[in-house]
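Input.
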Amino acid sequence: MGKFLDFFFSKRSREDREREGVLSLREKLEQDYREDEYDKIPYIASEGDAHDLLKQIKLSNTLLPHKSYMTFINDNELVFGHVVMLWWIKNVNRKRSPKFFSQEYGLNYKEEFEWLKENGYVDENTLTSKGEDVITSHPDIIDHHNDRFR
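Output.
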């Protein structure tokens, strides 16, 4: 197998690849987010998505989830998109989640939904009182979201 294919089929750890300076595009983007001191690393679905994102970034830097969307809004590691998710679960709650959760807010809806459940904000498909409190205490986030997606 050639060196190019060895990269994709290697069982080397991420740390080994980092030491050798070999990172996938996804890993490179994640490293860039860490260097930019994002509290939460935006979700990047696949290596192909990372490639497309890097091509688009060359055209416009506005395609990245804004750093303020990935900054913790409280001590419980909630970010902007979590508040929008809670509002979505309460008020819209369709079977399919919209792509803006990953594209705009940098969140993997399914993983973050599980995180919200594990942390007591959601019980199955309804908000707990803790989830309701988050929505009540952040109407500015809901207003901002509604203004962007009208």
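The CA atoms of residues 2 and 83 lie 47 Å apart.
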